[in-house]
Amino acid sequence: MSTALGTLEELPEDYRAAMAEAGVAPLWPMMRNLLPHGAPKPVTASGHWSYPALRPLLLRAGDLTPVEKAERRVLVLSDPGRGAGAMLATPSIYVGMQLLLPGETAPAHVHTPSAVRIVVEGQGGYTVVDGEKLPMEEGDLVLTPGGEWHDHGHEGTEPVIWLDALDLPLFVYLEGSYATEGPLQAQRNRPDASQVEYLSAGLAPARRRGGGARRYPMMRYPWARTEAALREMARWAGDGPGNGPVEMDYVNPETGDDVLPTMGFTAMMLRPGEAQSPPRLSTSAVFHVVRGRGRSVIDGVTHAWGPKDVFTAPCFAEIDHLAEDEAFLVRIHDRPLQDKLGYYEERAR
Ligand code: GTQ
Q1: How far is Cα 317 from Cα 323, in angstroms, rounded to an integer?
Q2: Where are the domains of the chain?
Q3: How far apart (Å, rounded) are the C-alpha atoms in residues 258 and 330?
Q4: Which end of the chain is more exposed for a tag (fewer CB within 10 A), N or C?
């Protein structure tokens, strides 16, 4: 790969030894690894995790390891490009499936990375963030931004399972990842702002100057509203396939910005039989199937997906989706980070 710029082997042995001794390395043999021509060469490979395969493994973890011992009972989805044990799904995104059993509490902590939960199964789960109690209903998207105390509880009778998405790989790379454990938050019943202050798009609470706007004003995005919005968008665009993508970004209702500094979330609806071939994006992505069935070809690999499955795409992947039934997906990506770094890109197919 790097022959044009010379290889390490063609340098004299004594010079290589002297460089290693001096704690230096020549750039030129590594130049094209660090800066490939024209586009990155991802290590990440597209993966697919079927929910029917994951679910029994996760329930078994419930038998084997009490939540008090695990702190968080999670199976991490390992990027196939990095192999078994990889604690990341794409270069910037960690995803895991978390299980909470009836009556359990996942203890309070705060950490530097941000997390988002997408509820997969079960009733009665809730997350408390900064004193606000966020009910977790299927498909809901719940933020626990970095620096905010959070814990999880369960008032229902069946297992609750959700998908965690964290920008953890970035924090690990930066050697900035750590958590602080603490007692359960004393205040834990402030009502969910999505039900009180942000009931209607375009309306936000009036505030006096200097009066306490929160950095993360809305922590819960109820799925029922997301689905209704997508359906209305699809209806307006016309019901047939081929009428363009029906997609909505999750945004901060005060600013219209992305919900978190690094991770972005886009809800997608695919009509029955609809095919989508989006441009190649510089962002990597994790797709969560809220509902429906279909198949996606990602860099030549076909994933036949069903409800609650997860699949991933590396940066600049070539992606073709085809929905069999009506399908709802949430795409988790890192466009907010790439926008800040100034290199987000879309390449036409
Ligand atoms: O629920 O706070 O999957 O701290 C990984 C780390 C979940 C959590 C994860 C965490 C959490």
Answers
A1: 19
A2: 48-205+214-347
A3: 15
A4: C
- CA–centroid distance, 115 to ligand 1, in Å, is 7
Q: Is the CB of 111 under 6 A from ligand 1?
A: yes
Per-residue pLDDT tens digits for 290-330: 999 999 999 999 999 999 999 999 999 999 999 999 999 99
Q: Are strands 150-154 and 125-129 parallel, antiparallel or unpaired?
A: antiparallel
The CATH number fitting domain 48-205+214-347, selected from 2.60.120.10, 3.40.630.30, 3.30.2010.10, 3.30.420.40:
2.60.120.10
The residue ranges of the chain whose pLDDT is under 50 are 1-3
- Check pocket membership of 112 for ligand 1, CB cut-off 6 A: no
Ligand 1, closest atom to CA 144?
A: 2
74 Cα nearest atom in ligand 1: 3
How many angstroms is it from 72 CA to the middle of ligand 1?
Answer: 6
Q: CA 4: distance to chain centroid?
A: 39
Residue type, 96: G
Going from the C-alpha of 309 to that of each of 161, 253, 280, 318, the distances in angstroms are 13, 29, 22, 20
Tokens of 13: 């042995």
Give Cα separations from 26 to 23, 35, 170 (angstroms): 11, 14, 27
Task: Determine the Cα–Cα distance for residues 73 and 276; give it in Å rounded to an integer.
Answer: 35
C-beta of 96 in contact with ligand 1 (< 6 A): yes
